[in-house]
Amino acid sequence: MLQFSDTQFAQIRIDSTRVSLSPGFDVHRLTIPAELQPTGLEHNLLCEVEAEVSAASPSSRWIATAKPTRIRLTNHNHTSVRLAFPVTNQQLLDLEEHRAGHDLLLELHLSGFIQFDHSSAESREHIRVPASVWQDELERLGAAFGFALSIPLPTSAGARRDAATYLQAARRLLHDGEFDKAIGSARQAMERILAVADWPQISKNDDLHQRSQAQRWRAIYKAVFDQASGAEHADEVTKDFSYSRGEAEALIGIVASLLRTVPASSM
Length: 267
Prior knowledge:
single chain, alpha+beta, Immunoglobulin-like, five-stranded antiparallel β-sheet, 10 strands, about 35% helix
């Protein structure tokens, strides 16, 4: 409830089943519809509404701030407002981890400012978006919602720094549309990773079911390295290889993940 004075206030109603997502380019729009029903107003008032949305506790995290919206409040009449928040792919992924398959718990911080008399009010509203509703909204995003390419930050020195630097270069080349060069830079990162990774040798004669965990990581590494090497077009087999953006993203993403599997102390 927004309470502007002892007698002037507005009840807030939010239908959590109408929370929606609209796709964008890396940044999407989260819309939370709300209804305000004022009581005790002496006359119609113009009110500016500001809003912030956060992931609710136990791990409360700020998500986004909505653009301020100006509405007219009339006694006992419902006034609708659609609060629109920008959210990135990475934020959506973090929210998925936060809700862990359950309902999505959000906290909405509303502030109302009445024009002319300068009175104001604040309210915190808790929203429980049903898991089925949220999953439907994510599916509506389609291909616009994907895994963000997260690359570990370089350390002060050593092979880990070199690998991260090569991966950052790969990401820039990917954004420039240089897919082969991007894969080549990711391949250079792999060489730095292997130089310090504690993965034993493997052989094509190994019993695959008897391989250790470390050997299986080495097998993943080898398969990815072989695929990435195709971008050099260095022989008759690979000279006509053509890599799409999706393939380049996949290879860079796998290499970034492999970098995360190697303990920082070993690099």
